[in-house]
Amino acid sequence: MPITILSAGRRRLLQLLLAAQVLYVLGVAGAGYATSALGQHLQLRAAPINPAELQTGNYVRLSYDIGNVPLTAWRATTPPQRRQQVYVLLHTATPDSAATVAGVYDQTPTASTGQAVLRGWVETVQPRRLRLRFNLERYYVPAASPLRREKPRRLHPLLVSVSVAPWGQARITAVQLRRTEPRPDTAHTQLQH
Amino acid sequence: MSRKFLETETPAWVQDGLITEAQRQQLLARYPAEAVAAIGLLPLLGSLLLGLSVLSVLAANWQALPPTVRLGLMLGSLLGAYAAGNYFLRRGNRSVGQGLLALGLLLFGVDIILTSQLYQLVGYDASGLLAWVVAGVALSFVYESSWLAALTLGIAAAVQTYYAWVLGSFSYATALLSLGGIGYYWGRRPSVLLGQVLATVVLWQAAALVAVSHSKITWFFIPAMLLYAVGDWLPRAPAATRALQGPSLVAAYLFTLGLALFGETDQYAGLLRPPLLAYLGALAGVFVVSFIGKRRQGRLASLPDWLLLLPGFYLPGGLPLAVATLVVLYCYAGAVLLRAQRATDGSGPEQLTLGAVLFVVATMVAYFRLTWAFLDKSLFFLLGGVLLLSLSWYLRRRNAQALANTPPAPDERKFPPTT
C-alpha cells in the first residue's frame, strides 16, 4: 500500500526529486546547446548506410569516411582491441574543409592549430583496417531539412558538421549534401558500404 | 464470486434446501449486476480517448514545434502527471494515483530520450538513462509503493538490455542502483509479487553480464544460486522465500532439461564447460552458504533443490551424460513429491501438482531421448500414449488421496509461483 498523505519531510523530498528531474532534462538540453556554442566545429565526409531511411524513418544512419582507417594510422604500442576507447587526431585545414585522419591514439593527443581531436570507439579490427564509431552515427532529420526532399539515389555524399565540446562530447549540428565529386580513394571506400 | 454464477446456481441450492428463497435474494442483493461497474469505466475511457487525441496531434506536429515549446511541453506533462498522481492519492484513490505517478516516471525517461534526440546527442551513449533508474528508486521510497518499485525494476532491466544489446557493455551502476535500492526496499517491506520481480530482474541482469563478457553460460548459475542462498538466510514466510528462489530454480531446471535434450552432442556440452576448479569452487562456496542458511532457518527439506546444479556437463557427451541428467530430473521430481507429502505449511497440494508435472516431463524426456533410437515408430507412439495415460491415472489417484488428507488451502487450484 502506498502512502496516500505524505508527511512534511517526504513532501520536501518529493519536491527535491521533481526539481532534480526537471533540472536533469534541462541539463541535457543545456549540454547539447553548450556543445555547439562553445565547441570546436569541424566537417566530416559521410554516406547514409541506407538512403531510403529518409523516406521511412525519422533518422538516418551514417557511415563516416574517418570511421574506416588503415591500421598504419594506429599510433599506440599495444594493438587495438574491440570496444577500446580511442582518440582520432584530425586535420581540419584541408582544401575542401572535410577533416582527414592524422592518427588514431589510445591517449588524448595534443592538437596543434588546424587539428582537432574526436573521441571514438573501436568497432572491429580487420587485418589491414580499423573500423571506428563516434556516437554520431544517427542523425535525426528535422522535418524542414532539404535532405527530406532529395531523391534517395542522390544522397550518397554528405558533409556532416560536428561540434566537439572542450569536455569531449560531440554532436551533429547540421548535415548537407556534398556537391563536389568525391576523390578516387574515398569513392573506393564508399563502394564498400 | 460472480453474479452470473449465483444466478445460475442458487435455484438448485434452494431446491436442495441449502438456503431459503429469502436468503437467495439476500445473496443476490449482495452482488449487484455488473452494468454499474461498466458505467463507472466510461469516464476513464473517455479521458483516455481525449488524451490519445492530444498525443496524436502533438506527435504529428512535434518536429515543427520550436525547441523551447517542445521542452516546455515535455516538462509540463512530467510535472502534471506527478501532481495529478499526488492529488488522487491524497483523495484516497490508490490505483489511479499510482498509475499517474508511474506515468510521470515513464515520462521522465521519454523526456531524457527526446531531449537527447532534439540536440542529436543520441548515439551509443546511454549514461543519461541511469538518471531514470535513480529517479525510480527515489520515487519508490518517497511513496513506499511496491508498484513503483516493480516498475523501477522493469526500467532497470530495459536499460540494462539496451546496454547489452546495442552497446555491448554492462552497466554496473544500473545493476547496483536498481538491485541495491529496490532490494533494500523489499527487505523492509517484503511482498510476494515484488520478490518475484526482483528475483527475475536479478537473473536478467546476471544473464546480460554473462552474455556481454562472453563467458560460458554456466557461470550464470553462480549469481543465480547466490540469490537462492540469500533466500535461505532470510527469515521470511515460505511464500516470500519461494518468490525469491523460484526464478533461480526455474532457470536451473530449464537448463538441466536442455542438457537432457541436447547434451548428447559433445559440441553443446563443450560450450558449457568453464574451468573445472574455478567453477566448482565457486559453486561449492555458494552451496555451503545456502546449506548453513537452510539449517539455521530449519529448511533442510528443500536441500534437494541443489540436485539441479550438479555439474553433469563435465561428463563426456553422449549416452552417459543423457542418462545422468535424466536420473537427476527423476530425483528432483521425486524430491518435490516427497516434500509435498511432508509439507505442514499448507503448500502440500501445490507442491504435489508441481511434482506430478515434473515427473511427467522427466518421463517424456526419457522416453523421447532413449526409446526413439530402438523402437519402430508406430510402437513408439503406442507405448508412449499408454505410458502417459497410466502415469496420469496413477498421479491423479495419489493427488486425490493427498488432498483428502490435507486441509484445503484457499488457493489450492492455482499453480505455485515457482512454475
TrEMBL record, chain A:
Matches recorded under Pfam families: GDYXXLXY
InterPro entries with a match to the protein in the record: GDYXXLXY
Domain of life according to the entry: Bacteria
The protein, known as: GDYXXLXY domain-containing protein
Organism name: Hymenobacter aranciens
From TrEMBL, chain B:
Alphabetic keyword roster: Membrane, Transmembrane, Transmembrane helix
Domain DUF2157 as annotated: residue spans: 12-148
Pfam families named among the record's database cross-references: DUF2157
Domain of life (superkingdom): Bacteria
Coiled coil segments of this chain: none
Signal peptide residues on this chain, from the entry's feature table: none
Entry keyword annotation includes Membrane: yes
Transmembrane feature ranges: 35-59, 71-89, 101-122, 128-150, 162-186, 192-210, 217-234, 246-264, 276-293, 313-340, 352-372, 378-395
Protein name: DUF2157 domain-containing protein
